[in-house]
Amino acid sequence: MGYFSPELFTFLRQLKRNNDRDWFNKNKERYIEEVQQPALDFVASVAPGLRKISPNFIADPRPVGGSMFRIYRDTRFSKDKTPYKTHVGISFGHRSRKDVHSPGFYLHLEPGEVFLGAGIWHPDSKSATAIRQAIVDKSAAWKKAAHAAAFTKSFRLSSESLARAPRGFDPDHPLVDDLRLKDFIAIRELDEKTATSARFLDTFLGSCREAAPLMRFLCDALGVAY
Q1: Which of 8, 46, 78, 138 could form an SS bridge with 59, CB 3.0 to 4.6 Å?
Q2: Cα dihedral across residues 120, 165, 132, 206: positive or negative
């Protein structure tokens, strides 16, 4: 038996069709049993293996304030007022900066879209500049971390890009396409069959190990311990 079942994806599909409080409240026990508790159990099981990869990324199985994102959407500044997310998001962030804008591993479970992410999403301008400078100063290490053949068999860099080279960086630099990235994230595309398999914990941790050189590079660039 794996951690996640097909029922998790069935619930999320139904939630997408019935994204209102009445339906969710009637099905909340299902949510806890089929979605929340399996995700928290998975986070708890990730913790020992993740510590072996790096002691500085946190797997926190608390239902509130832990690695699993809340199902409730923040609709205050959105035209979309549907109250619930229709995916499961789990973040294993760096202990020095406990937010989604710091280096971390991420698991996304959504019908038709399952993936693992490793890196830093929407870094602030200071962090982005530090990473870009590290790419310039340590180009060989960056290419080994982000573009090695073995790594790119499983992962791809995923980000929107600036229209031109960022200010202060050479527009003719051989890695200018990487310098233009807004996020420094590598994505491994998965699927529902993989996520619901008995070996998914091993698959997830193995992918984290593959992404370790990228994570080490980013941590070094930001001056935090890997």
Answers
A1: 46
A2: positive
H-run or E-run covering 120: strand 113-120
Structure-token match 């370790």, residue found: 212
- Cβ neighbors of 72 (< 8 A, separation 6 or more) are 83, 84, 85
3-state secondary structure of 99: coil
Among 45-59, 74-88, 196-210, whose mean pLDDT is lowest? 74-88
CA distance 219 to 21: 41
Supply 88's token pair.
Answer: 């499961």
100 band by pLDDT with thresholds 50, 70 and 90: low
Alpha-carbon distance 185 to 170, whole Å? 22
Give the three-class secondary structure for 114.
Answer: strand
pLDDT tens for residues 118-168? 999 999 999 999 999 999 999 999 999 999 999 999 999 999 999 999 999
Instruction: Please tell me the distance from the alpha carbon of residue 37 to that of residue 15, in angstroms, as a whole number.
Output: 17
Show the tokens assigned to 75.
């609709």
CATH of the domain spanning 6-222 = 3.30.930.20
Q: In what order do the strands lie in the sheet with 156-157?
A: 88-93, 104-110, 113-120, 184-190, 156-157
Helices (H), ranges, 165-211: 176-179, 192-195, 200-210
C-beta separation of 226 from 215 below 8 A: yes
Q: For the chain, what are the domain ranges?
A: 6-222
